[in-house]
Amino acid sequence: MISRRRFLQVTGAAIATSTTLAACGDGGASSGGAKASGELTLPTYKPFEGLHPDFPGAESGLEPGFLKFPADAISSVKAPPLKSSVTALTETFATPPPPMGSNPMWQALNSALGGELKLTIGTDPGYPEKFATLLASDSLPDLMWLPPNQGIPNIGPMLEAKFQDLTKYLSGDAVLEYPNLAALKPASWRTAVVNGKIWGAPIPSTPFGQVMMGNPKTWAKVGGLQCSTADEFFAKCKELSNGTNYALEPAIINMLHMFGEWFGAPNGWRVNQDRSLTYLYETDNYKAAVEYAAKLWAAKVFYPDLNLADATPKTVNGQIAAQVTVGPRATADFRNLDPTLFVDTMIPFGHDGKAKPTYDMGYGTVGFTPFKKTDEGRIRELLALMDYLSAPFGTKEYLIKNFGVEGQQYQLDAQKNPVLTKAGNQQAPGLVSALQIMNSPESVIFNPAYPEDTRKIYATEQKLLKYAMRNPTAGTYSDTSSKLGPKLTAAFRDTIVDIVTGRQKMDAYDAALKRWKSGGGDKMRDEFAAVLPSSVPVTGS
Amino acid sequence: MRPIWKERPSPGYQAIKALVLGGFALVIVIPILVVISTSLASDRDIIDAGGYVLWPSHPTLKAYQTLFGGGLMGRAILVSVFVTLVGTAIALAVTIALAYATSRPVLFGRPVLLMVLFTLLFAPGIIPMFLMVKQLGLLDSLWSLILPGALGAFNFVVLRTFFMNVPGELLESARIDGASDFTILRRIVLPLSKAVVAVVGLFYAVGFWNAFFNALLYLNDTSKWPVQVILRTYVLQGKSLSADQLGVHPPSQPQSLQMAVVVVALVPIAMVYPFLQRHFTKGVITGAVKG
């Protein structure tokens, strides 16, 4: 039950968030940004030496694979980074950790760092509100994680007004003073650049995007998950669906994302020859994918309950044959439920067997963590902390940050892989998630319990990379997109879902597109086009 | 001939009534049963059922053991109980005092005061609230969950309307007998208003128990988080859209654990209802006529 006052509070809260930050500036984030960004020298890339993955990574985004945790972890920093305590706002996507006072792992981290790391841990959803209140109250912590996709507006003016420009400490060879930061790839650094300045260390996550995964036992009946034409996929889906079992999970938008790849739709925006931009929704490719999805829906191959929150258990037990997951490493989610199950990952194919499909890479980072304005000594101290927390997989610092102390939070198993103990399982997950979201090294493939999976995922990634396409606007900011993007997208998606599920006809598509354009889509295009880096290639070339 | 409502209902009519009421009861009971069953189900049961379990064939208390095995849940329950009990007591005291004072005709300048109170119906928005809480030094204190919500304007209006309908003659005679305002409130008005006070108290208690947003904003120390915030993180883990877009994806908590958290968050407040139910029906009806 929600009392009237509470209701009003909640509504008031929503309104307040959308208007407050708008007061911080007039949205001039885009002016001159592209030019300035072009002149910036990104930090010099120098991969970390002394680690030998079983499968090497590559600049293309291919993640290095480790069959087991490197024995005799080496140290990547020379001295503890901190002299005094540091406050930070971050977010956990896991359940929250026990507080510092009753969390030995946190205390061990503090003593390794040389000072207390006081974290304020936000949750999702709710993070932008927390961010906005702290910003408005002017009681900023030393570090504040800035998510790229949760609708925090006026990024440019906000950074200039409240946060520290770190360009001179990180640009070019200056970064070499912090070897773990120098080991972050240029593609990651690009997402920490706004208005031609570097505002923090980027936080790499997997560079891969969504994939379709299927239970091989289910698909064996129709000759396997992989297909070479859209018609073949349609026929297989139909064969697998019988009123109690269904081929596809009911996440229409995610499924459409997959179909779009088969029909050659761009990743977000298409860069045309004249360097103008065309949005995904405006392409015939996406429209064709919508029509295809509607055909599949009419054939009753989608699980009918659109509100199904998590299809994973149903994919495991065979009620649903395929679902869309966050990326090629998500095979682990299925192993969690059924240790004998290694799911197949669909490799995109051309819809007619001839056209070149695309594979949409993800954003690649979870943003960056800017510093509150401060003096040079403190900046150096905080950068050393960033360096420590960005220590690559396989180092001593990585172990302390992710697994704690041997014998307390983790033990080595027979293959010498770190495994969390019972105490570790209580103390680690919430804390590690909060730390990873404010700092991370480049990602790796590592499945200690199933080393074979690492080999297979590595192979899948190589196949996916053949069709890889990056969102040309990743790492740039459009204020209209921050403010109105989520709302416009939601409205358009509502129409698409209606079309796919047969509640509206296909001609509603153009009307919805018109609303999207006039409601802010065209403005977003202009803003993104103005800051489009010259290094971004024309799509399809 | 007897009037129709004195006739014995026909068996057919009885059967239809039983069917309809039984159907409604099932619609209410089954989801709760599913939540409880799933919280007791083993991983195998959950995979076989594809998510929710109606009846666990291998019941286990594992989920509850994990939940209370050193995480934040035990503390969170204490926090929620404290906030609910103390919050409701303070809120009732403040609301009753104000409602009584404004319900008596003698108070000078009442229209102006009511105008001021009317503004309470509108929320101030999160940033002003945050600044206020910060300036009162309540950040990271449980009082930040209690004091800002201590006067619900809606509850105040309900209570005041009720008090105004207590016959003036009754209060006048008490005053002639020498009773002070406080005695009148305590000895006459409150005993006459038990039902409505119980209802308003329940509104407050449920409100305090369910509140989570204030805790997210004002409390940085995770050990002070109430049950609802913990519930939210357990249930939403692995389902975050923004986490998916970014490619960070902690696996969902096991379904049994999610449902165990729901049970833990549900049971304490549900236990209050049977004790208040009598007042509740009465209070709602009184409100309906005297509104």
Automatic annotation (TrEMBL), chain A:
Keywords: Signal. Residues 1-22 form the signal peptide. InterPro entries: Bact_solute-bd_prot1 (IPR050490), TAT_signal (IPR006311). The keyword Signal applies. It comes from the Bacteria. Belongs to the bacterial solute-binding protein 1 family. This is Carbohydrate ABC transporter substrate-binding protein (CUT1 family).
Automatic annotation (TrEMBL), chain B:
It is found in: Cell membrane. Residues 77-276 form the ABC transmembrane type-1 domain. GO terms for cellular component: plasma membrane. PROSITE patterns: ABC_TM1. Its main location: membrane. Gene3D superfamilies: MetI-like. This is Carbohydrate ABC transporter membrane protein 2 (CUT1 family). It comes from Kribbella pratensis.
